[in-house]
Write a structure and sequence with these properties.
The protein has about 280 residues and is of the alpha/beta class. About 50% of the residues lie in helices and about 10% in strands. It has a six-stranded parallel sheet, sandwiched between helices.
């Protein structure tokens, strides 16, 4: 059997070579994100811009309404949002609506590292822990945080936490942000905090839930994004993470595939020209 010429080999390279090349290309950004420019959706920009415009001293309620099963989907966006909040002079109160919420909180807050921004627990941010009751708990928090949650997740009485001494309910908050995989949780904050107290609300949900919450945007929900936009948020705040790593991998693999297609086409037409000459 005659050996293939270089041009013939380029026109139709072995699958193993292509798969190995793609595996290497996909692995590079996963080890170290490249921060390649990516198109950022208007919804993500809107979400980020609302946080950017928070006044100094504003209080923000962050609700983590997802569990460990949805952690890979939400965590990139949550961590990027924490970075966005901690770089500003605002106070952050975090609570969870699921029993495994403390697990996802600890993971996200460790990655955001508030200490690197000079933030102190109890003075700049606080974690209330799992507040059971669903929408009933949201209503209780809106009416009187001290009555709804007598102590934070670590057992410190609310009255002893400096940043919460004069904070009592929804009327003291400038913004509420909810990350959730449950439609009733996303809508619950609208009923209990937006409709009742007119608190501006940002929502991040699973992409498949977007049609459910879409009717509330942009009146009750000021910014609505899908959790799959985490890479975009990481890009905007300048902290590459898992979301941007995935985006880098996709971008780089598409660039390589385009290059392979172009080179293969050049080889094909070169061979065609050679056969005509013969």
């Amino acid at each position: 059997m005659a050996k293939k010429s270089l041009i013939e080999w380029i026109e139709s390279p072995p699958r193993e070579v292509l798969y190995t090349l793609l595996l290497i290309i996909l692995s590079i950004p996963l080890i170290k994100p490249l921060g390649l420019p990516i198109p950022v959706s208007a919804r993500t920009i809107e979400f980020h811009h609302y946080i950017e415009t928070l006044p100094d001293g504003a209080y923000v309620m962050v609700s983590l309404g997802y569990g460990v099963s949805s952690q890979p989907a939400f965590e990139p966006f949550v961590v990027a949002t924490f970075h966005d909040l901690f770089k500003r002079n605002v106070k952050v109160v975090v609570e969870t609506t699921g029993s495994d919420g403390p697990i996802v909180y600890k993971s996200a807050i460790a990655k955001a590292n508030p200490d690197s921004y000079g933030k102190k627990y109890g003075e700049d941010y606080v974690f209330l822990g799992y507040v059971p009751g669903g929408e009933t708990a949201m209503k209780a928090l809106a009416e009187d945080i001290h009555a709804a949650v007598p102590a934070d997740y670590y057992g410190t009485p609310i009255e002893q936490i400096p940043m919460l001494k004069n904070i009592h309910g929804a009327t003291d908050f400038t913004l509420v942000i909810c990350f959730t995989s449950a439609g009733d949780t996303a809508v619950g904050w609208i009923r209990q905090w937006v409709t009742s107290y007119n608190v501006p609300y940002l929502s991040c949900v699973l992409t498949m839930m977007m049609p459910t919450i879409e009717p509330y945007y942009p009146v009750q929900v000021k910014a609505l994004v899908g959790a799959d936009r985490g890479g975009e948020m990481e890009f905007l705040v300048g902290h590459p993470g898992p979301g941007l790593k995935k985006a880098d991998s996709f971008s780089l693999s598409h660039m390589v595939l385009m290059a392979i297609i172009i080179v293969a086409n050049i080889a094909y037409f070169s061979l065609k020209a050679q056969k005509k000459e013969v």
